Amino acid sequence: MLGINDTTPAPLLTDEQIQDRVTRFLAGQESWIRERYQNRFGGTVPVRRSGEGYECMGPDGHWMPTENPRHVKLGNIQFWREMSLCAVSPHTLDCSWARRGCAPADLDGSGVVDSADLALFDERWERFGGGAVCSDANGGCNGADLDGNGILNDDDRSFMAAAQGCRR
């Protein structure tokens, strides 16, 4: 969709406009989203104006050029906010856990992934041990194999951490 040639590039925003949009967007988010943003970027906005384009903060913390989308919006889709980093920049943000949704990490079935689920995960990790083979016979390590790859490993820990605050 970003390759459609029937519109001109979106007008460039100033750094102040970018800051304002990020601040307003984060204000409407749940606390865990704001906390993850703060942990990753601190007080730095991860997008800035650079000449006649933009730069974004890469996974290594260095600035890199990024394109200016050709469309401000198409229908109800606002590309600037809604183009998922998971899809367009998987080297920046790995969201493979999101494809499975909250359900695997909601170990207590409460509808929200929280500290109670983390405690259950930790208990199951201790019982089966890192590197355990998770199969139908042991119920996928009693549900602790969150990514479903058949091994209890750090990816499952990352899945649980990423899913904290997720609601079904």
Task: Describe the model.
This protein is mainly alpha-helical and 168 residues long. The chain folds into two domains: 15-86, no CATH class; 98-163, Dockerin domain (Type 1 dockerin domain, Orthogonal Bundle), CATH 1.10.1330.10. 39% of the residues lie in helices and 8% in strands. The chain contains eight helices and three strands; from the N terminus they run H-H-E-E-E-H-H-H-H-H-H. It has helices at residues 15-27, 31-41, 79-82, 85-88, 96-100, 115-128, 139-142, 154-163; strands spanning 47-50, 53-57, 63-66. The protein has a three-stranded antiparallel β-sheet with strand order 1-2-3, with no helix packed on it. A hairpin with a 2-residue loop joins strand 1 (47-50) and strand 2. It is elongated. The model is unreliable at 79-83 (pLDDT under 50).
Domains, number: 2
Largest sheet, order of strands side by side? 1-2-3
Give the amount of beta strand, in percent. Answer: 5-15%
Low-confidence stretches: 79-83
Query: Order of helices and strands, N to C?
Result: HHEEEHHHHHH
Could you give the distance between the termini? 30 Å
Shape: elongated
Structural Rg: 20 Å
- Content-based structural category: mainly alpha
Q: Would you count the extended β strands for me?
A: 3
